[in-house]
Design a protein that fits this description.
This protein is mainly β. The protein has one helix and four strands. A four-stranded antiparallel sheet has the order 1-2-3-4, with no helix packed on it.
Length: about 80
């Protein structure tokens, strides 16, 4: 059984800040997000280049950081 979420939606809205993530040495910002599912967290959708065996390839980044249990928080 999952632990209950330790914060409220209000607390998240008032205090959550964007998070810097680094992928392959490239800093990116994951923005604060309330997902359509009702979960709370952070999201980044961007593109970058990664070198594979000396050849640069373009990649698309899709990153979700979801607070466990936040989907079940009461709607305010």
């Amino acid at each position: 059984m999952a632990k209950p979420c330790p914060i409220t939606r209000k607390h998240f809205r008032e205090h959550a800040k964007p998070i810097e993530v680094v992928i392959n040495g490239v800093p990116m910002i994951a923005e604060v997000k309330e997902f359509a599912t009702g979960s709370l967290g952070w999201n980044n959708s961007s593109k970058t280049t990664i070198t594979v065996g000396g050849t640069p390839v373009a990649v698309q980044v899709g990153l979700n950081l979801t607070i466990v249990g936040s989907k079940d928080l009461p709607k305010e």
